[in-house]
Structure formats: structure tokens, C-alpha cells
UniProtKB/TrEMBL annotation:
Cofactor field: pyridoxal 5'-phosphate
Protein known as: L-seryl-tRNA(Sec) selenium transferase
Protein function: Converts seryl-tRNA(Sec) to selenocysteinyl-tRNA(Sec) required for selenoprotein biosynthesis.
Principal cellular location given in the protein's record: cytoplasm
Amino acid sequence: MDKKQLLRKLPKMDELLNEEIVKLEAGTTMKEIVMESLREAVDNYRNLILKGKIEDFTKEGILKSFRIIIEQKKQPNLKNVINATGVIIHTNLGRSILSDGALKNVIDAAHNYSNLEYDLEKGTRGSRYSHVEELIKRITGAEASLVVNNNAAAVVLVLNTLCSGKEAIVSRGQLVEIGGSFRIPEVMEFSGVNLVEVGTTNKTHLKDYENALSENTGAFLKVHTSNFKIIGFSEEVSLEELVKLSVKSRIPVVEDIGSGTLVDFSKYGFEYEPTVQESIDKGVDVVTFSGDKMLGGPQAGIIVGKKKYIDKMKENQLTRALRIDKMTLAALEGTLKYYLDESEAIKNIPTLHMILASEDEQKRRALILKEKLENKNLNFKFTVEGDYSMVGGGSMPGQKIPTYVIKAESSSVSPEQVDKKFRKRRVPIIVRLAHNQVIMDLRTMLDRDFDVLVDAFTEF
């Protein structure tokens, strides 16, 4: 059949709209999406005909193509994925998973009207920040708190409020680059602050800060280098020393602690990571940290510290531009409440649970998943081996967490083929590849992921 005959054979839209499969879709899907999918299916065949790539076709083939296209269009661009990488706070995969308590709060806030900015006691307009302020103060021991939409925003707001047009003194060893190529010097410049670098990359002394002091100094800035470590011939000024200098000079100390750790992980055999509570106890004037990293909540920038400084930030016009929405507030409150009892936080906040769950628990789960996979008689060899997970999110870069992984290999299917097909699934699966094997870390996988993973392997 020549091209003209094939083109004339293409069905009309009215004809396709009367097909049962299309009618069923039209009953549950927006008309625009149905029509668009039909046109694309027909256009795909028209292009194949014009390029001479097919000699004939059937209406059933077009309808099958329509079904594939419309299923793709109905899927959200922001998808659920299975994280089998072993990186717990995976920035590219959405960082922390919300707890059940946080999720319930979000659904309630999104599905109903709320007292977001309404004081139920007084019957007048209230502040959205009041819903979490007392909780944050209770957990951290700070005099006051404020929440904005992420930690970079928190740093910008703090610096703009306390020392816009002035100088902020910071050690050269702390001029870090964070995710997305954002750098501390650029953040400071955007805040309207003049950067004064002191010390060297590996060594900074108290006298460096003292010598840099001037009548134009607005703050001492200390940045916790959570995403890298300087090992060897190095020295930095302690918080205690900087606070003493702050009291003597009447210049506030601002600490960007980054990951926002509220749990002392060294109690559980991990490397030491400074906590927000410690910084407040040592007298730091203002501390900023993230809500969606070690804290295990939603994306947010949390500011805690002396009330006189926090009050100034609340009056800054930037605060409105950087404020968080009701769903973030709801999720943050639901997360923070667990921290009133550390054992409850570890049990219920997925990020903390994944970090602290035992190696033996991962081995037990790995063996269960391996049995499920092997029961399917797949064309793969599966082995369970010890390995290491990472915290991720720029937190605890040197900490390796013992875990167990499942390794899959096949003589007929390459790891790259598995990886590509897994990423294209309705629920994508993100794995690691090494030594001609597909590696799946149980620490970052949920029990509900197991059957999905088994089904994915059966497709080869």
C-alpha cells in the first residue's frame, strides 16, 4: 500500500471518539487531554507513513498508542520514586520524607480553612509564625524564633536585618558553596553585607577576628562546614571564644548551622555533629538551620536566638517575601512535636529512623526482599552483602553507616539497561551501578517498595 492510500486510511477523530476505549477514558479524564492524546496517536502514525517506516497499520494499533500516550499525560511531572541509593537525605530525590504526623497535618491544612493568621482567642488577625514559635523555643531553648522558606533565605534575612550596609566577619575556611552553586560570599553580597575574610583556609585564630573589628562591623558570622571537612594542620575559633568576643565588642554572633541537628548523634555511636541546642546554650545570638535535612521535616529555614534580634527580622519587609505557606507550617509543626520526646522522634521521623536503624535490621529486610525476588525465577543472580549508606544533604560527609544491599547481575541484561528501564517506570526506581552490578540499599527503601521492585525485575 502506497503512502497516499495509507494516509487516506487514517481514521477521523469522530470515528475514534466513538470507540469504547476512548469513551471510557472520556468519562474519567479531561476532554482536552483525551483529544490531545488522540491527535498525537494519529500524528505519530502519519509521520511514520510519510517517512516510509510502515507499510500498513490497524485502528487497534492507533488506539493502543492512544492508551500509552494518555497514561503518560495523566501522570504528574513530580513523581514518587523509590530511593535505593543508600543516600538518606538525597537532595535530588526530595530530601527528607515526612512523618505520618506531619503528613496528616498537611492534609488537614490543605483540605480545610485554617486559623493561619487568625487569633482564635482574641478574634482578630494573628501571626502565622505563632503556630510553631513556642514549640521551637521549647525544643531549642531559644528566646524567640522565626521560620522562612529555606535556610539560604534565613541567612539572607538575618544578615540583611542585622548588618545591611555593614561588615560581617567570617573565616576563610567557612566560605563554602552549598547546593545549586550558591556560595556564602554571594549570599552575603545579596544581603547587602560587606564580607570581611579572616584567617586562612585551614587556620583561623581569635586575633584574626579581633584585628578585623571596626566601627562598621555588624556581625560575626560562623558557618558550619557540614558538607566537607578539613583534616590535618587546621584550627578554628570555638563558639565559646567567639561569644566572649561578641559580649566584649557588643557585636552579635550569627551561626549558620546548616543541617539543623536537634539530636546528639554521638550518643548513638556516630561522629559528633553540633546541635542547635548547644549553640543556644553557648550564647550564640542567632542560629539558622534547615527544616528538611537532619531535622527530617519540610523545606524551611528556621531562625532561633535572642528576642531583640528576631523581633527586628519580623519587621523586615523581606520576611513577607520569604515567608512559608500553611502546608509547610503544618508539616513543620507535625515534625517538631515528635522532638518533645527524642525516642518518639527517632521512631516516627523517617530520616532519623533511617540513620539510626540497625545494621541487623537491614540484613533481615534484605533477605526478605531477596527471597521475594528469587521466588520469581528471574534471569538475574541476587546476592546480599554488607555495604555503607550515607547521610547525604551535605550532612556528616565522613560518616559511613553500615548497611546491607542487594546486588543483581545478569548475563543477558546490562546494569545500564536495568537502570534506564527502572527510571522510566510509572514509579521510577533509582539504583546504584558498580562493578557490572545493580546495587539496591535497603536502608533507604521502604517495606512498601519491595513488591514494586520485584515487579520491575519481572519485566526483563
